[in-house]
Amino acid sequence: MTSNIRITQRVLVVGAGPVGLAVAASLCEQGISVDLIDKRPSASLHSRAFGLEPITLELLSAWHIADEMIRRGIVWAEAPVGDKKGRTLSFSTLALEFPYMVIIPQSYTESVLTEWANKVGVNLKRGMELKTLTPMGEKVVVKIEETQSHSVTKIEYDWVLGADGVNSIVRQVLDIPFVGQDYQHSLVVADVTLNTPPTPAVYARSVSRGLVALFPLPDGTYRISIEDNQRMDLPVKQPVTREEIANSMSAILGQDFGLGDILWSARYRSKQRLAERYREGKIFLLGDAAHTHVPAGGQGLQMGIGDAANLGWKLAGVIQGTLLPDILDSYENERRPIAKAALKNTDLLFKFNTAPGILGRMVHWIGVQATKIPYIEKKVVRMLAGEDAQYHCLRQKGDHKRVGQRLPHLVLCHAGQERKLTEVLRKKQFVLIHNHAPRLVSALQSYFQTVAQQLTVVEIISPKKLLRDGQATIVRPDGIVLWLGSDIAQAKTRLDSWVNR
Questions:
Q1: Which residues contact 420 (CB under 8 A, 6 or more apart)?
Q2: Assign residue 386 a region: left if phi > 0, alpha if psi is -120 to 50, beta otherwise?
Q3: In 101, 225, 326, 484, which residue has its Cα 20 to 30 A from 209's Cα atom?
Q4: pLDDT tens column, 185-233
Q5: Where along the chain do its domains lie?
Q6: 10 Å Cβ neighbour count for 291?
Q7: Which helix (H) or strand (E) holds 348?
């Protein structure tokens, strides 16, 4: 649902990658005037990030673009463990709307997001580079250079969002420390053609020599990721050759699957970095500008989209006057711990996959065997799906354990029709889900008549066990549980700290 009302406050988003496009389109769809700039003259044509987790698909569904991502990508429901038997971990065990991942190149993802941004009226300008920004009272003064003519324009904005990547100019100008470590191992990624592709199509193997993973791309090519212990000392500037890739594949996978053309390749060293703060007054950091880590587990893009979903509705609400200004502090309080935990998990996973020597391989073997234990298997699958992330800071003493979490897949009744939660969330309103709770519904509908925010009321059809008879839960516009219970006064108190009267 696109708002026809344009708010006079102006927002500048720096960086037109997936995160910048997502937050810009989300804001613009809610009636906020947004300029989006990127120093690149055109969008990326390489696959780079290439997977969307189940929880990310839920966020995209609430933005009504998940179906298009699925149509352009490849559905992937089984994650290979990497052992000799080809064992996999299944996302189908999770009670999610999308019990699978979607393999889709970043270029495709950016294309879908760009179409959405253009549709809702984002003012996207490529070949424009941010040079400086200076907070001045309630405004942020920026200087933007046109990269071809080198002409510089000075503009005032009300808000600036930095989604401009690992080398963020926004973060550097604000002098926000980007703390972490550099890995000394060099890794290889490439897009290739295979004459005899593996079965199953998503294929991985981890042995004493290292790890190789193969992922099919929608155009029939393959993304290959290589962690070869015998080549990790090579300098990143050394070109990646076809012979090197074929050798690593044969040594680790046992064959090269008819390796054909190398369409694109890169050798790189990963970094683990986390910004000390995500906000400086009316300036925010999102995505890789705020956090970066090794690609183990494929969580980088997922966290960036999560940042956009978390900040977008809050900033729109504050600008429109429907939410209290202080709630913008919750962006960092909620998202930074998620990034910190992801950095820890990916660091352990990377060291797990690259552990050298007999002791290292023994640790690796024990870890692989441990995933056969149902509890550990489910925990790993939930992490890969993004389902384990939760906002602990939202939970207060006596709260239900689901506060701060996303709900499982629900079937709801809205206006006499069955609906999914992500469909209801497209209205960008708080959602009250109840199980035969007329007193709660009446009281909270009356409450929302006295505040600037709006409420959508739905009744749960299944699973009924989520809510006892007479209970209800309030879900934020980003799908996070704000409150769950039957105490009307408690529900109103919780809302009082968020909505503006």
A1: 61, 97, 409, 410, 411, 412
A2: left
A3: 101
A4: 889 999 999 999 998 899 999 888 888 999 999 999 999 999 898 998 9
A5: 11-50+105-177+276-353, 180-271, 392-499
A6: 28
A7: helix 329-353
Cα-Cα-Cα-Cα dihedral sign, residues 332, 337, 342, 343: positive
- pLDDT tens digits, 445-495: 999 999 988 999 999 999 989 999 999 999 999 999 999 999 999 999 999
pLDDT over threshold 50, residue 6 = no
246-282: pLDDT as tens digits: 999 999 999 999 999 999 999 988 889 999 999 999 9
Cα 283 off chain centre by: 20
Distance CA 477, CA 309 (A): 9
Please give the single-letter amino acid code of residue 61: S
* 3-state per-residue secondary structure call for 180-220: EEEEEEEEEEEEEEECCCCCCCCEEEEECCEEEEEEECCCC
With a CB cutoff of 8 Å and minimum separation 6, the contacts of 468 are 435, 486
Of 288, 302, 300, nearest to 55 by C-alpha is: 302
**329-353 and 300-320 are packed helices; what angle lies between their axes, rounded to 10 degrees?**
180
For helices 329-353 and 357-370, angle between their N-to-C axes, nearest 10 degrees: 120
Total residue count of the chain as it appears in this document: 501
Given a contact cutoff of 8 angstroms between Cβ atoms, the answer to whether 165 and 245 are in contact is: no
Domain 392-499 has what CATH class? alpha beta
d(CA 372, CA 385): 18
The residue type of 92 is: S
Q: How far apart are CA 231 and CA 245, in angstroms?
A: 11
11-50+105-177+276-353: CATH number: 3.50.50.60
Q: How confident is the model at residue 50 (pLDDT cuts 50, 70, 90)?
A: confident
Indicate the pLDDT class of residue 357, thresholds 50, 70 and 90.
low
Return the CATH number of 180-271, one of 3.40.190.10, 3.30.200.100, 3.30.70.2450, 3.90.1150.10. Answer: 3.30.70.2450
What confidence category does residue 184 fall into, taking pLDDT thresholds of 50, 70 and 90? confident
Nearest to 278 by CA among 342, 320, 334, 345: 334
142 close to 155: Cβ distance less than 8 angstroms: yes
Q: Angle at the Cα of 387 (from 383 to 390), degrees rounded to 5?
A: 105
Alpha-carbon distance of 352 to 5, in angstroms, equals 52
Cβ contact 43:17 at 8 Å: no
pLDDT of residue 8: 61
Structure tokens at 434: 């109840």
